[in-house]
Design a protein that fits this description.
Blueprint (H helix, E strand, L loop, with lengths): L1 H129 L4 H27 L8 H26 L1
Helix pairs in contact: 1-2, 1-3, 2-3
Length: 196
């Protein structure tokens, strides 16, 4: 019996060794699984953290982009207002300039008409005496009177030219009126000299 007990002991020894070693192997595999699970958990946490940071950065960039778009829209609106204001200001200035030019034209016309009226008064005084001119001077006086009528028409045309005068041509039109008035006055003076 001793042999059989001893034999049994020897035959059960590998089984016992396996039973002792197997849990050690299983415990090592479980430790490895636990380590892998821990590493997987850390990796998942790092991925989640990276995704969260990326979402935050993306949200910040989107906010900055929206702010820039808002500033751009505001700048466009301000530029449009500035252009509109400048156009309105330019239109107002153009209207004011046109009104000033119109007043200047009217003033020049009134001055020319007044001077023409004065010259015509002098002419009216002289015309009363034309019929009393001696026969030898009558042809010369008649020719001067015809020239005076032409000169009056030229001055009337000059006065009408003020209506189309620009800022640049207003002085030229005035100079022409003055020149024609001077000629008219000289002719009236010549007639006066002949009728007295």
């Amino acid at each position: 019996m001793d042999d059989s007990v001893e034999g049994m002991r020897l035959s059960t020894l590998p089984v016992l060794a396996f039973l002792v070693v197997a849990p050690l192997g299983c415990s090592h595999a479980e430790e490895e699984k636990a380590k892998l699970a821990e590493l997987q958990k850390k990796a998942d946490e790092q991925i989640a953290q990276a995704q969260s940071q990326a979402k935050t950065k993306l949200a910040d960039l989107q906010k900055e982009l929206d702010d820039v778009k808002g500033e751009l829209a505001k700048a466009k609106e301000q530029a449009a207002e500035a252009v509109k204001s400048a156009q309105s200001g330019a239109e107002d200035q153009a209207k004011a300039a046109e009104a000033a030019l119109s007043k200047a034209r009217q003033a020049f016309k009134e001055k020319a008409r007044s001077e023409l009226a004065d010259a015509n008064k002098d002419l009216a005084e002289v015309q009363g005496k034309v019929s009393k001119v001696p026969a030898k001077s009558k042809a010369a006086v008649t020719a001067l009177m015809q020239d005076i009528q032409k000169q009056q028409k030229a001055i009337a045309k000059d006065i009408t030219a003020f209506d189309a005068a620009t800022v640049d041509t207003l002085r030229t039109a005035d100079a022409q009126v003055k020149k024609d008035l001077a000629v008219l006055k000289a002719k009236i003076h010549s007639v006066r000299a002949k009728v007295q």
